[in-house]
Amino acid sequence: MYNLKGGIKAWQGLKAVGPVELNLDLIQGDESPVAMIEISYGMEETLRKFYLLASEQIKNGEVVALLKKLGDIEERHKQILLSRYAELNPSEPDGQAGLADRLPQILEGGFKFSEFLDRNRAAFQSIPELLDLAMMIETQALDLYLRFAMKMSEESSKKILYKIADEEKAHLEALGKLRDKPFMEKKLTLHLPFMS
Amino acid sequence: MKPVLWRKLFGPVKALEPDQVKDYILQHPEGTYALIDVRQPGEYEAEHIPGAQLIPLPDLANSLNKLDPEKPTIVY
């Protein structure tokens, strides 16, 4: 048993926000590995679309380039999920088309792209602020995958979620290293959809 | 209460610096350790370490069935 010295007040690492049950209604907790991949694929595609939409509305060339890179990373996550999907579904010739057809409307109820963009437009003014935003979004995604895993009764589906969470951790580590470069100074207050 | 869980809960606890916990989380695959937040729900909602399982301190002794005695556990 280990104790974090100083508690969360001393913690300088990633922090997620929101109640335990946030977005947990997206799963029942007994989904098969294939169903869990479908849901995760939908989440990654939602994030990819968000970065793409933002890149179409921003004029700053450097920020646009970073947004496209962030979108590419989400596409890579989708490809990893697609490979796993193909392993589990060898009879389905075009896994990507099948997944796309069944994309659940992840976060649709509480996540309206244009509204989120409008409320957080300051984040798209510079690279440091955009990286803060991306890290906050990815931290929330990591937290959600791990809360999904806690709810999940199916062990093989839990393993899928842990793998995806490990990918997100690596992604966050990379973003953090980029953020720690000398030009990173400002802290950003992010307005998330579920915060009033 | 199962003896192994009793020893886990009330046995020696090693204090780790924040950087040590950060490194531990980075270096260990998810699912191989447990991260427990013993604060109240409102505190958890305001901020928490991603993936932390909320078990408020007053509920901890009655929630031992939620802990895996084989997994290293980090508490805050």
The pair of chains with the biggest contact is: A-B, 34 and 37 residues
Mean pLDDT of chain A: 81
The computed structural class of chain B is alpha/beta
**Which regions of chain B have little confidence, pLDDT < 50, spanning 5+ residues?**
none
> Which structural class is indicated by helix and strand composition of chain A?
mainly alpha
Description of the molecule:
- The complex is a heterodimer of chains A (about 200) and B (about 80).
- Chain A is mainly α.
- Chain A has 6 helices and 1 strand.
- In chain A, about 30% of the residues are buried.
- Mean pLDDT of chain A is about 80; it is low at about 105-110 and about 185-195.
- Chain B is an alpha/beta fold and about 80 residues long.
- Chain B has a 3-stranded parallel β-sheet, with no helix packed on it.
- Chains A and B meet through strand 1, helix 5 and helix 6 of A and strand 1, helix 2, helix 3, strand 3 and strand 4 of B.
